[in-house]
Write the structure tokens for this entry.
Amino acid sequence: MTVRALVADDEPLLRQELIEALGIAWPELSVIHEAQDGQEALQQTLILRPDLVFLDINMPRLGGMSAAQRLRERGYAGEIVFVTAYEEYARQAFDVNAVDYLVKPLDLERVGETIARLRLRCKPGVPAQAAAPPDTGLQEAPSAPWIRVTSGTHATLVWIEELACLRSSAGYTSLVTRDKTHLVEQSLKVLQQRLPPEHFVQVHRSAVVNLHFVQRIVRECAGRLTQFAKTTGTPTILVGHVTKDGGLAGPKTLEHLIDVVLQLEGDGGPYRILRAHKNRFGSTQEIGVFEMRGAGLVEVPEPSALLLAERPKGAPGSVVVASADGTRPLLVEVQALVSPAGYSTPARRASGIDPTRLALLLAVLGRRAGVGLGTHERPFVPATLARPAFVDLHALRRNDHGKGFLGFDLELLCRACRRRGL
């Protein structure tokens, strides 16, 4: 009697070549259906129940390997042969009890060897029946802490807490653990109802992740993006957040994987400063100044003019500082004001400078310049873009002590500041 077969390949010419080779090696073989993808092969095999199924590995909608695994899970007991150009899938082929593995381009002698094996295993005219489902003695309740995965006559219990993520594909869901991926026919929506919401989060319509594995996933994604960028020469930008301390959010290893760390800073106004905290290809001392407008961020070509735009001319306690940030010179305003204190312990306030550094500067001023400020309050407001050394010097020069600007030996003060490491 005639042996019935189904052939699945998404390339019509290669599919026809296989059918002709089978006709030569086994004239009694009858191809009852030709499938163009894995999904069609799965559906028609379960309906027609052929004796043999020839599957290509790479097909749209559903690959041949996944289709074979689902056929075994649904109890298909017929013979399966893979036909593909990829030899690395040979070991996986026998995991689903495949009879043989043919590599393209087809060799008639090799096809004849496969047919010889099939003749010994097939019973012509007897449709392949469904295998009995595995009897594990366990009833899978909706509240069970595991998901049962069936493969032919075997059943595996996959514990929910060990799932790293779930991915939905055409007609089935992939359960991904640390060391293996399982396929189940249940939809992602049904499985999600069994997952604890405090641990599993849906990040895409076809993906749910376990928060316990998120840190590992971040490292894996960053590593793959880094490898892609270096092997293809493609500039890759990762956008992230910073913590309250100003560090990169996420695993610390993420910072070591990348070449450049740029941080965009702002105080709520329209202006932003771009700083380099790490740069393997250049200096980290350079900055960029931008203004947020309706069309987006626009470069500010003259930051000095921006910083001095609202400075009143001739105002006491104000001075323009020439500071260098990287290779860019900046003109910024430094303000300093001194007023008599109304109580025994004066308040020393600072904005943009370390209060400890301010106290040291005042001590140098009183000791070396003969200007005592022990009974005066002194708000201190330097510009945040200037270098501390420039700010220190000009701030001391421009204090208003109630008697006009301070006068002292500038060279003497500079030597005193150098001795103290300022």
About this structure: The two ends are 100 Å apart (CA to CA). The longest helix spans residues 214-232. The domain at 3-121 is CATH 3.40.50.2300 (Rossmann fold).
